[in-house]
Design brief:
The chain is of the alpha+beta class. It is built from five helices and six strands, in the order E-E-H-H-H-E-H-E-E-H-E. It has two domains: 66 residues, no CATH class; 69 residues, Alpha-Beta Plaits (2-Layer Sandwich), CATH 3.30.70.3460. A four-stranded antiparallel sheet has the order 4-5-3-6. Strands 1-2 form a two-stranded antiparallel sheet. The relative contact order is 0.15.
Length: 168
């Protein structure tokens, strides 16, 4: 059975939705990967065995899910704070005519990990990760100087783990 899920295209000026078709294998693969990734010589083979599939199909499905943007990221998630660093989620209200210029300015900072356009007063959201809170605050100050725009700084106060599990 093929299920359809709604995807939001956040790269355009206005959010658009389109349907992505997910097979039972796709959903089981996504669910399994949310519980962790095997550390072994052939992790995709380990995953395939758990799913009753084969290694080549698992790799092909992951590539397909990335290419169709059902998955937008596949990789480790590091807890910067546990590693001795700091991070924050920040936002800017960027005039439309300056959006491309401000995007380049914000992305010029090595400490900016992600940068997303949103349909909202605060239309640019980005993550700043650094070695310390002092450095995070300095980067935010430098971004404000470079862009001539005030940055909304929203540091994490509490962490929640929310996972999406799809019925297969």
């Amino acid at each position: 059975m093929v299920k359809k899920v709604m995807l939001m295209d956040k790269s355009s000026r206005h959010a658009q939705t389109k349907l992505a078709e997910l097979s039972s294998l796709d959903k089981r693969l996504i669910n399994l990967l949310q519980r962790g990734f095997p550390i072994s010589e052939r992790p995709f083979l380990d995953i395939a065995e758990q799913l009753g599939s084969n290694e080549d199909i698992v790799i092909e499905r992951l590539n397909h899910l990335m290419a169709t943007k059902v998955l937008t990221r596949f990789g480790p998630m590091f807890d910067a704070v546990c590693l001795g660093g700091a991070f924050t989620l920040a936002a800017l209200a960027v005039p439309e005519e300056k959006f491309a210029e401000v995007t380049m300015q914000v992305n010029s900072f090595d400490q900016v990990a992600h940068n997303y356009r949103r349909t909202h007063h605060y239309n640019m959201w980005f993550v700043v990760g650094a070695e310390s809170e002092v450095e995070v605050n300095q980067v935010i100050s430098d971004i404000e100087k470079k862009t001539a725009l005030p940055v909304l700084n929203t540091p994490k106060l509490e962490e929640f783990y929310v996972q999406l599990y799809l019925p297969a």
